[in-house]
Q: What sequence folds into this?
């Protein structure tokens, strides 16, 4: 089942076309990466999918129904971390979490569990206005996942986080996904997308430029060459077809082969090939 979809969605801000006939669908239970540099419409798309904005044209569906028909019960199944997510500055980390837990009817025990997973277990008494940017980001994420949402929107969730905390956040997201949470992830970090996402879509100039499974995209855009590394350090290449590879390996009979692999690009290189632009 498609848990959300957009069909021919367009949106303009004055004379600026933010989205131009955008179409895609996300299957229930997957982590879907919506990728591209800043300013291409990733955040705008999340705001449309969460009814913070209305499209100029096109159709949007969430949980299999037109978005205009979503009721409060449906919204209770959604979590979001976006650029306008906020916290109560004069309240502590724990008090922010407790307020949200009370609104959701959740047990207080859930608070400690989530704070531990986002690396804020020792910061419960800290006032929110004194948090660093990275700690604030983690608190907002903790609030977004506290109620174990069925659908989670994350807009650049690991921006400003150190590598160790990023790894912990990734573990939390995989755990939630294993528990059936669908995750819609926007990022310009292609390494993060490669690690987390079942499928990705490249957004460029308001349209989807390419979409697919990361491993399959790498094969699709791989160079038409195979590289053979010998144990003595010598590297050889041949065309990427069975006949050429077989002939090369036959010629190397008796020599130690360390590895054989195709020269596959990473997602950032593929984005550049598809769009002609960098991620910065």
A:
């Amino acid at each position: 089942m498609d848990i959300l979809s957009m069909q021919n969605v367009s949106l303009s801000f004055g004379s600026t076309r933010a989205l131009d006939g955008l179409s895609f669908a996300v299957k229930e239970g997957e982590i879907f990466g919506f990728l591209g540099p800043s300013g291409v419409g990733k955040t705008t798309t999340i705001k449309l999918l969460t009814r913070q904005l209305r499209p100029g044209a096109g159709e949007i569906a969430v949980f299999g129904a037109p978005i205009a028909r979503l009721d409060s019960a449906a919204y209770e199944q959604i979590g979001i971390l976006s650029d306008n997510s906020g916290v109560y500055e004069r309240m502590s980390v724990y008090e922010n979490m407790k307020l949200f837990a009370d609104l959701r009817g959740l047990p207080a025990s859930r608070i400690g569990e989530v704070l531990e997973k986002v690396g804020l277990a020792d910061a419960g008494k800290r006032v929110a206005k004194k948090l660093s940017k990275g700690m604030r980001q983690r608190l907002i994420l903790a609030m977004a996942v506290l109620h174990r949402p069925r659908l989670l929107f994350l807009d650049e969730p690991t921006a400003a986080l150190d590598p160790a905390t990023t790894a912990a956040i990734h573990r939390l997201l995989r755990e939630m996904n294993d528990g059936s949470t669908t995750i819609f992830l926007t990022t310009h970090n292609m390494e993060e997308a490669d690690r987390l996402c079942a499928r990705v879509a490249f957004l460029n100039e308001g349209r989807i430029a390419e979409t697919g499974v990361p491993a399959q995209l790498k094969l699709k855009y791989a160079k038409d060459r195979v590289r053979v590394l010998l144990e003595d350090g010598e590297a050889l290449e041949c065309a990427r077809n069975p006949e050429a590879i077989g002939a090369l390996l036959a010629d190397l009979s008796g020599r130690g082969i360390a590895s054989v692999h195709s020269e596959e690009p990473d997602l950032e290189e593929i984005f550049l090939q598809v769009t002609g632009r960098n991620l910065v």
The radius of gyration is 22 Å. The longest strand covers residues 2-13. The chain has ten helices and 13 strands.
